[in-house]
Please model this.
Amino acid sequence: MIITVISAGWLNNISLLPNLVNMNMNLRRFLVFYRLPLAALLIALGFWLGFSVTWWIAWLPFLIALIMIAAYFMVGPMSLIQGYIEAGDMEGARKMMEKVKFPNMLYKPIRSSYYMLRANLSTMDDNLDKAEEDLKRGLEAGLPEKEFEGTAYLQLGSIAYKKGNTKEALEHLRKAVKIGLPDKDNEATAYLQLSSICIQRRDFKSAKIYFNKAKACKATNKQVVDQINEMSKYIARIPG
Model:
């Protein structure tokens, strides 16, 4: 009987968890969206406390207001965007990013993440010029890890390749593999594109070297594996 009662109470608590999570998310959204109005109210509260009670207490709402104002400009709604991405709601992430009115005022690592994410969304829309512009802005802001920097150069190389600028593509892709990429699938993709460019330039020796490096990555992504298998048929026909 005791076990039953405890279990029932535990299950009731578990059933409340989704509601608590939703409440937490709603509270976060409220705090993010209404930072400036809340900061104004806190400043007003600080003045009221200062004149009516004591200035020794008034500093606290002033401090919180200053933090909120700084967060509005230096962080924006970026803390909420990750949730949309994890849920696969790219349209929601896009709308949230549109709420960033002053991207150049974002804290530097957050600014680079903002431009990188916006570049990914532009790539999905096949807006290559916009994606290229945002990737370069992200690199200028400074990426927090070298692997992210390598991924940015891989994307720049892919965009340049699609636009027919093989010289720029070659430069960016070589830089990507030199800096380093986050996984073997990305590394194989870079080497495959390098191999394709060398084939176009009739530099068959380099094409084979890059292709063998792509194979050595032992990629697991199906699309990359299919590309390797398809290119292997062409590489096999190259003399020498």
Notes: DSSP finds twelve helices and no strands in the chain. The radius of gyration is 26 Å. The first helix runs from residue 2 to 33. The CA atoms of residues 1 and 97 lie 54 Å apart.
